[in-house]
Specification:
Keywords: Membrane, Transmembrane, Transmembrane helix. The structure is a single chain. The protein is mostly helical. Helices cover about 60% and strands about 5% of the residues. The chain has 27 helices and seven strands. The chain has helices at about 10-30, 30-35, 45, 65-70, 75-85, 90-115, 120-130, 135-140, 150-160, 165-180, 180-200, 210-235, 240-245, 265-275, 280-285, 285-305, 310, 315-335, 345-365, 365-370, 375-390, 405-410, 420-430, 450-465, 470-480, 495-500, 505-515, and strands spanning about 40, 395-400, 415-420, 435, 485-490, 530-535, 535-540. The strands form two sheets. A five-stranded mixed sheet has the order 4-3-5-7-6, sandwiched between helices. Strands 1-2 form a two-stranded antiparallel sheet. α6 runs parallel beside α9 and α24 runs antiparallel to α25 (about 470-480). The protein is elongated, with a radius of gyration of 26 Å.
Length: about 550
């Protein structure tokens, strides 16, 4: 029996959902909240430069910091500016607060969707999907631009389902300044709904329905276009096209970005979403399949008990969102990567739909149990406990092992420029708070202008790092103004070189350098004296004044 949407809903329910969600997040990400070195990996490419707001001497303007600042949407920058500059908080710590707030917002939006579809019981089941499906927190965990995608998409659909055009307009504007491609998605789907409503006998769409809605659409479009124009004006754009994708080894499976050939749609629509439902990520392939097999009969029983015709009358927004997402996904694949990575237009929609279908089926499968006293509270506590377990450290990486290296780099002059293995440079850049010549995470080959500058940097850095002639290293340092090189001795072991120490197209050249006669010159203490902040890691001073006399 479907409950009325407004039956039994109290303000206390919303607060309780928020408090439980916050508890799930805090317990699941307790290690990240306790340590500055446990963060989302992408946070190292987008947030480091914000430390300038605490200390203007940090990160003198250069290619990487300028690109990172231009790459982050204006709304995200404004939020961090208020927290960092206004309250003196560290940017990386702010990212964890933002992630927690967005996780709570997602759970509240899902609760609202469940309430709108059927009533408070389904609302609780829907909120529990935020706790039980790692996909959502995995994308939220960095507190970055993409962290806003899932929560704001769910909030947009909630406003749409409640036929609140003003709410849809405000959420669309928030998307435009925080996650532009989701603004494109939501605006397109809402307009599609409005057109379809006019062509049929269905009630008029709630958005766009007024002149103010048209202004909101224009403002959102202006902000999205402005973001792209800014990147292009600063020499970082445009996005790479299909011909370059096919020709560039950096886009292949051996490259920095495994973008081409584009993945089979089966993976985007089914395989990867099912990974977030079954226990694939926790225990592996076979246990994941078994967990789905155990869940399937329960869902089947719930699906047979669900009054689908009554729900169907309320899911028009979800149907139009799914249709529009599929259309944009197909278009983005056809003109890749002009509209950015194609799966971004479908993955959030698909996972949102999966979450709501799971919630509906589980709610009706467990309906007999819910008639018992305290059963609802027990299920909520069970879901929260399982959520803490499933979400523990989801989206986080532990970089504490190299803390002595970060401290040594942080002791260098504020205007120091550091080079080394790009995979080490992301952490040096973020935790050592010193500019680096080229890093792995910021090697965004999809940005044509940026890659034009990054490609020679990465190539020259690799030549110097694996050089067997001291002159090559000294000329490299002089050409770019590099003062220090971080050398990890394990990078020079034959096994490391054989498996590819960086990515295509550089791996083959590095292997050629390693095969040349002689020894790696950066490992020659007589030529390049060093300090060792931790075992196996050298901090080599390559400034002219620090070089030994011939």
């Amino acid at each position: 029996m479907i409950e009325p949407s407004d039956r039994g809903i109290r303000r206390f329910d919303w607060w309780l959902v928020a408090c439980i969600s916050l508890g799930v997040y805090a317990l699941a990400h307790r290690l990240g909240l306790a340590s500055p070195f446990v963060i989302n990996d992408d946070a190292r490419q987008q947030l480091f430069w914000m430390a300038r707001w605490l200390d203007p001497a940090l990160y003198p303007p250069d290619l990487l910091s300028d690109y990172a600042a231009a790459y982050v949407p204006a709304g995200v920058k404004a939020l961090y500016f208020v927290a960092v500059k206004g309250f003196g908080l560290e940017p990386l710590f702010v990212s964890k607060l933002v992630a927690g707030a967005l996780f709570v917002l997602l759970a509240l939006a899902l609760f609202g969707l469940g309430v709108a579809l059927e009533g408070p019981t389904l609302g609780w089941f829907a909120a529990a999907m935020a706790w039980l499906m790692p996909y959502f927190l995995k994308n939220i965990s960095g507190g970055l631009s993409r962290a806003f995608a899932g929560p704001l998409l769910a909030l947009f659909v909630l406003a749409w389902m409640r036929r609140c055009g003003r709410g849809m307009a405000w959420v669309l504007l928030l998307e435009a300044v925080t996650i532009p491609y989701i603004a494109i998605l939501c605006a397109g789907c809402a307009c599609l709904d409005a057109v379809m409503a006019r062509l049929t006998d269905r009630p008029a769409a709630p958005f766009p329905a007024r002149s103010s809605h048209g202004l909101a659409l224009l403002a959102a479009a202006a902000m999205v276009i402005g973001q792209n124009v800014t990147l292009a004006a600063k020499g970082f754009g445009p996005l790479v096209g299909r011909a370059a994708l096919a020709a560039g080894p950096e886009f292949s499976a051996a490259g920095r970005l495994e973008l081409y050939p584009l993945p089979n749609p089966f993976f985007d629509l089914f395989y990867w979403p099912l990974e977030s439902i079954g226990l694939f990520l926790e225990w592996g392939l076979f246990p994941g399949i078994v967990s789905l097999a155990v869940l399937a009969p329960v869902l089947w029983y719930g699906a047979r008990s669900t009054p689908w015709p009554q729900l169907a009358a309320k899911v028009r927004p979800l149907a139009m969102l799914l249709a529009g997402s599929l259309a944009l996904y197909v278009l983005a694949r056809a003109i890749a990567l002009v509209l950015f990575v194609p799966d971004r237009y479908i993955c959030y929609t698909i996972n949102l739909c999966y979450a709501l279908v799971l919630a509906v089926c589980l709610r009706h499968a467990l309906a007999p149990l819910l008639t018992r006293r305290w059963a609802g509270a027990a299920l909520v506590l069970l879901a929260a406990g399982l959520g803490v377990w499933r979400l523990t450290n989801v989206g986080l990486y532990d970089y504490r092992a190299d803390a002595p290296l970060y401290a040594a780099v942080a002791a260098l002059p504020a205007d120091a420029l550091v080079a080394g293995n790009p995979k080490d440079m992301d952490n040096v850049l973020t935790f050592g708070r010193r500019n680096v010549l080229a890093s792995y995470e910021l090697a965004h080959a999809w940005s044509v202008g940026l890659w034009k500058s990054m490609l020679p940097r990465l190539a020259h850095q690799a030549e110097a790092y694996y050089a067997k002639d001291a002159t090559v290293v000294r000329e490299f340092a002089k050409a770019y103004g590099v003062g220090w090189i971080v050398v990890r001795e394990a990078d020079f072991e034959p096994a490391a070189i054989a498996r590819g120490p960086l990515f295509a197209p550089f791996d083959r050249r590095i292997q050629e350098l390693a095969g040349a006669p002689g020894n790696f010159v950066l490992l020659n203490e007589a030529q390049f004296p060093y300090t060792s902040p931790e075992p196996g890691v050298r901090l080599v001073d390559v400034r002219p004044a620090a070089q030994p006399a011939p």
